[in-house]
TrEMBL record, chain B:
Keyword Iron: no
Molecular function in Gene Ontology: transmembrane transporter activity
Name of the protein: Branched-chain amino acid ABC transporter permease
Superkingdom in the source lineage: Bacteria
Membrane topology: Multi-pass membrane protein
Organism: Noviherbaspirillum cavernae
Pfam families: BPD_transp_2 (PF02653)
CDD domains named among the record's database cross-references: TM_PBP1_LivH_like
Gene Ontology cellular component terms for the protein in this record: plasma membrane
Family assignment from sequence similarity: Belongs to the binding-protein-dependent transport system permease family. LivHM subfamily.
Amino acid sequence: MDYEISLLTSMGISVLFALSLNLITGFCGQISLGHAAFLGIGAYLSAMLCKTGLPFFATLPLAMLLAGFIGVIVGLASLRVRADFLAITTMGVGFLFVGIVRQQDWLGGELGVSGIPDSGLSKIGFMTLTLVLCAATAALCIYIKKSWMGRVFNGVAEDEDTMRVLGIDVPRYKLAAFAIGTALAGLAGALYAQNLKFIGPDSFGFVESITVLSMVVVGGIGSVPGVVFGAAVLSALPAWFQFIGDYKLLVYGGLLFLMMRFSPSGVAGMVSRVFNKGGRA
Amino acid sequence: MLFLELIAQGLVQGSIYALVALGLTLVYGLLRILHVAHAALFTLGGYIGVLVMNSSGSMSLAFMAAMVAAGIMGIAMYRLCYAPMLKQPPFVALIASIGLYIAFEELFRIIFGASGLSYQAPPLQEQVALFGGLQFKQAELMVMASTAIIIAVLGYLQNKTRVGVACQATVSDPQMAQSFGISLNKVRDINFFVGSALAGFAGVWVALLNNLVEPTMGSVPSYKGLAIIVLGGMGSVRGTLLAALILGVVESFGTIYLGKFLDRNAIAFAFLIIVLMLRPQGLFARR
């Protein structure tokens, strides 16, 4: 039972994290290859504050604030670049975060931060908290998607220049997407640190940024239920694939490739194709 | 003294980056795809090079084999992976490419082991003293020289031969090129072959410089390669070349003067971000 609880908890954190990227990449069309940096910012802030004696719950909003604040700065810097340039710039932000943390002894340097104080919740309690936050985030995403803001996001993703011509303040909406998305990633980070009780610079590198992006894309970019499904399945895959041992990552990489080759709109796209035959995918 | 040494080391590293990034630029120029799996071809080149060298003892044979193998694998990647995805949004090919790269890295690890392979008798390891007391390994000098030669030859071929001109035409306007009777698929095959062969060539050099090939050796050049083609202005060959050399030098100075605050990767990307903030179109964009 313990194993299932911890698996569910880490799946919940992955789903929350993937939803946060989906807000930026799926809703607003801003590709980010460095999203794990914001998970890291939340995780490090929460871990360091917990170590100074602050209760875990008080660190949650602070982690969101700091990650969101830095997210806005990155967003401001990113306003000047588009598409592929943006992908590489955000990838750079990810490397910058890892590179900085690695050289800071007061943040644990290469060795990372261990011995993070307990939240006081039982394992089941922490799992419940994670899943509740996860559900709340999914609800928020659905709400945003249907709101005016969500429609503008969609417009920016489809055709930025047209939105400009329509008199929409595009930078403001891009920044809003970055702010909300990175703040939610910070929240996921705080949960992540508390769940593992250990964090290190390598937990927030390029590979993690790619992993979360692939969760979003495999699930179905932009679709909330799709992303929840994609993140839940992909985060559990390595555990389920334990029996193939050494071939785990080979299969993972191969699946990613095959998925894009044969169903580029993800699982959500597959489902909608089945239900409206002949309609748009 | 230290100054010169840092520049020289930067140029050696920059030459390797240039060889890897040129292939990325060719692909980006043609298809607008960020070809992460390119780094797998670099690693493949390294492995083939070491295997052929250890069994035959001939370095030139090792280079040839590595380039041909990487080139053919490059064409296979284009035909099986990218060609069917050209109509999809760009992130689709990007994610597929990343998936492919992960799978290749694992394949190398499963076949050759995680600890990597080495040359039994690595050639070109002697130190050579140049003017002013600068010390180089023979291999380091050869890297710079062969990169310079290859790029000069490529530049010549690109401007003076039918195939080269066809490639340029396809990059700048595929539809127009096609209406003039240029076969897009043939041009893309050639580009993938040349770019991938260069990556394989670079892989053999890196294996020589470090006397080691490992499954993960492609990761650093792959990220840096992407940073370089962005710095160079996306799709411009000359820009890519200059950006690669500049990044190599910036890194080698950075690790000395900023090493306390940032690691090597972070220095490269901090430089990238600063440049993009000042010139969002890259250092040497054509327009």
